[in-house]
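Here is the promised in-class demo. Please do not try to memorize the tokens; focus on the logic of going from shape to residues.
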């Protein structure tokens, strides 16, 4: 406990003095490979980033993805991701980046709750202005594993109820891609 407290006391001043902290918002489109014939789903989120070295940063993201599935009920997916971001150049206004991350997924509908986890990587381009304004775009490719069981859902067919199997709605296992626009402030 004392060693951890001492390490924290020594690390905080050096991180705060040398590396920027960035906070911002993101909006974009999230598309599962299994739904190749459909449009992507809208996503909104927040991110926080702290510089670990001059070119390496740690980033935490929380995001909400809304599905418009007309077959079942709309699904709300909440995603939390921790990632490492590497700036591919060490100076300039336009900074190309590469990122690798992992996170947790939580989807809820009128019928059930589905949990999962994901791994992703991607490329980005960020404009960093004087005064701390950052505007960027990220393309992420990832894979998701889902821990769920199919849930029987009653459906009326004429006057007779017959069970249908509901497959978890918008949280799909498999590959996905996401395109996000970001805006933030570094301080």
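The designed amino acids, position by position:
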């Amino acid at each position: 406990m004392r060693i951890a407290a001492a390490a924290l006391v020594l690390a905080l001043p050096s991180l705060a003095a040398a590396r920027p902290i960035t906070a911002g918002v993101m909006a974009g489109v999230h598309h599962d490979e299994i739904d190749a014939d459909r449009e992507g789903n809208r996503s909104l989120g927040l991110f926080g980033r702290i510089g670990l070295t001059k070119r390496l940063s740690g980033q935490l993201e929380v995001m909400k993805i809304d599905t418009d599935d007309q077959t079942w009920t709309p699904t709300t997916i909440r995603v939390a991701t921790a990632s490492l971001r590497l700036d591919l150049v060490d100076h300039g206004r336009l900074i190309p980046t590469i990122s690798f991350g992992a996170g947790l997924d939580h989807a809820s509908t009128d019928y059930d709750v589905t949990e999962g986890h994901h791994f992703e990587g991607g490329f980005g381009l960020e404009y960093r202005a004087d005064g701390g304004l950052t505007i960027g775009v990220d393309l992420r490719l990832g894979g998701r594993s889902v821990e769920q069981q199919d849930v029987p859902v009653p459906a009326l067919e004429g006057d007779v109820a017959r069970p249908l199997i509901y497959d978890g709605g918008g949280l799909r296992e498999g590959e996905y891609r996401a395109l996000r626009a970001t805006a933030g402030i570094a301080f």
